[in-house]
Model the fold of this input.
Amino acid sequence: MTTPDTFARLDVVVQDVTGRDGFQNVAPWIPTEVKLELLRGIAGARVPWLEVTSFVHPKWVPQLRDAEDVCAGLAADLGVAPGAPRPVLSALVPNARGVARAAGRGIDAVSLTISASEAHARANLNRGRAELLDAAGDAIAAAREAGLQMRGGVATAFGCPIQGDVPLADLAWVVGRYAELGLRVIRLGDTTGMAHPRQVREAVTALRAEHPFVTFVLHLHDTRGMGIANAVAGVEAGLRHLDAALGGLGGCPFAPGASGNVDLIDLVHAAEEIGWRTGIDLDALIALGRRLPDLTGLQADSRVLVAGKRNDLAGRDALREDGSVAAQLRG
Ligand code: ZN
Done:
């Protein structure tokens, strides 16, 4: 397992959610071997944390019905070079039954998700937030018993497609309940890409001040083009953990209009250009991203895959051939 020492050397801990959020809403079946090839590629690129699948009922998310097989495949071969640090592996679980399915499969951590929006919680699960939080105690106890770290996820943390604005007080209430239940890693999910940078800055600043011993994770969707800006705002407000998915895949099957996660390649590129060490092999990720359409039939929504890295100068090779800037300008 990647030790906290490994994380300490990183300015930003980028967490890949391709295997769960990236795939969960894809209707055509992605073969387990293809999922494994992508996840091994991501782990091999030294991404320090991977959420690889979800132990929800297959009726709700049929694409992830191979959760056990994915875990077994990664336990056999994680795609990490000998001697390289092993990434932390996590999975989403809906309840104690999900925890039981995840236990003993090489998974280090599991995550619960509860909406900050009462309307979203009721629409998805037909239960209110308080009731869901009461039930979370069983799952947390099961995780403790199984030796799995439990993380608390908050959906619609910055806005809800049903309710609209979600007051910071509502988000803070769910975070506070998680903290009371003993959780020390809490993920703030912008489920349908409604967050904006000022809102992220204010929320992260307030929550960190109230819960100095909690590690906060930002889970951002780029639905409206604000994903990277929100990530930067979150890091500038003091958090270090950011979720992303290869090729910007993803979306919530229960949130109409939700589109992909922040793209893993664009996020790592932005962080490294700013000077925030991620420890990730960006070139390996770019090579993997180029293979995504062939492997899955899905398009990669990645700016860097289209334009190249900031220092991949498009005119450089042409200039070398001609030797003249003037010829370039004439062209
Ligand atoms: Zn998501």
About this structure: The longest helix spans residues 129-146. The chain has one domain: 4-330. The chain is about 45% helix and 15% strand. Residues 21, 189, 191, 219, 221, 250, 252, 261 surround zinc ion (CB under 6 Å).
